[in-house]
Design goal:
mainly alpha, about 300 residues, about 0% strand, about 75% helix
């Protein structure tokens, strides 16, 4: 797919657009799928098929070697954090909370990265801009939470909220782990192996937490959902995301994080008839503004450090 995108920044912007829209729609499509199949089982099938596509292509067509023992350890950790906990639990959360709220909580990961690194590593300078961003993020989520929690009380809402927060924290820890433990693996190939590891662990977790549905009993609608999640969400969007990171500045490539929650909210309101009030919309904008300010403050801090003369 990446080979067919326009060269240079034009291809990067197209990849960013694809990533933002497709990952926004996958929240809604996942919500549709889990109406007929347990969430963790669906996530497992999705990661299995997506992982097989990546691994088969790079292992047998590109002739890449199997990962080393050290790389297997890295892949296992990333598979658990990114695909079991982040993807699996966020998918499960959709059973209990609105699509837009789950997507918005997922977008908070830059805020938790700052807090985790500050508490456990002491490696982030908390500027005024960073603190303002954190406060805006929490305030925005509070507005959205108020609209969803105190006006309605769906069964399992708090459990779904907990699943979504854990998923977001797992993505944050995975982000930190990648930055501090780099390996020399093709990113697409590594993603495939992480998906396969995640698929196996998700299936085990699904077996012990939710009654599995025999594959032959799945409706054509569910298989269409899975096909979309695999081909569009797990393959196309991941390829586009990695391509955009290569072609665009990190600050621009990360804009998908601000766009896809809004896409999820709007499409969920249209397709699933989920409530989208002005308070929810403004709460989402406040939250995403906070995330932007945190990212911007970190960027300025890094630029300041890099510009300082070395002793």
């Amino acid at each position: 797919m990446a080979a067919h995108l326009p060269k240079g920044k034009a291809g990067g912007y197209l990849a960013l657009f694809i990533t933002s829209i497709v990952w926004g729609t996958t929240w809604v499509v996942s919500k549709i799928g889990i109406q007929e199949i347990p969430a963790l089982q669906m996530a497992s099938i999705r990661q299995l098929l997506g992982g097989l596509i990546f691994v088969a292509f790079f292992r047998f067509y590109k002739k890449l070697a199997l990962p080393t023992l050290k790389e297997w350890g890295w892949l296992l950790m990333m598979g658990i954090l990114m695909f079991v906990m982040a993807n699996g639990l966020s998918t499960w959360s959709l059973k209990y909370i609105p699509t837009g709220l789950s997507a918005l909580i997922g977008a908070l990961y830059p805020l938790s990265v700052v807090l985790i690194e500050r508490v456990f590593y002491g490696s982030r300078n908390m500027t005024v801009l960073t603190i303002v961003g954190l406060l805006l993020g929490v305030t925005g989520i509070g507005i959205v939470f108020y609209e969803n929690a105190f006006h309605e009380h769906p069964e399992g809402f708090l459990f779904g909220l907990l699943l979504s927060v854990i998923a977001m924290l797992a993505w944050s820890v995975g982000t930190i782990f990648i930055a501090r433990n780099k390996v020399n693996l093709n990113p697409y190939y590594a993603t495939g192996w992480q998906m396969l590891i995640g698929a196996a662990l998700l299936l085990v977790l699904a077996y012990f937490t939710q009654p599995l549905v025999p594959l032959q009993d799945l409706s054509p609608r569910v298989w269409m959902v899975i096909a979309y999640l695999v081909l569009m969400g797990s393959v196309l969007a991941f390829v586009a995301f990695i391509y955009s990171m290569k072609k665009l500045p990190a600050a621009i490539a990360s804009l998908y994080a601000y766009i896809n929650p809004l896409v999820a909210m709007v499409i969920a309101a249209w397709v699933l008839k989920e409530k989208l009030t002005m308070n929810i919309f403004w709460g989402a904008l406040v939250t995403l503004s906070g995330v932007f300010l945190v990212n911007y403050s970190l960027k300025k801090s890094r630029e300041k450090i890099n510009s300082e003369p070395q002793q």
